[in-house]
Fold this sequence. Notes:
About 10% of the residues lie in helices and about 30% in strands. It is mainly beta.
Amino acid sequence: KGICPDGWHIPTYGEFLTLKTYVKNISNPLKEIDQGSGPGLGTNETGFSALLAGWRYSTGEFYRIGDAASFWSSTMINFSQASSVVLGWWDNKFYLYETTSIEYGLSIRCLKD
């Protein structure tokens, strides 16, 4: 709450599932041009412009900077887990995880209401 501007929200698991279906489980159209390599090279055909910013562990260490884009959904699974999305440099898959520890620091995308 309070992260996105008025009229915007953090996407739900269901909204990310709709996006995954729209891009046919292919992440390259979501990644900024030249983010990733080989079969995981971004094309940004959707204008989503994902940057491979990695994530932060609960210890404060950063991981996968330049290798993966990770985004929270607003769907909480329980008091310590929420669903998330990962787009990697290594392939063109759209990974949608139902359970990710909320102790991690992931990026946020806001979606217009």
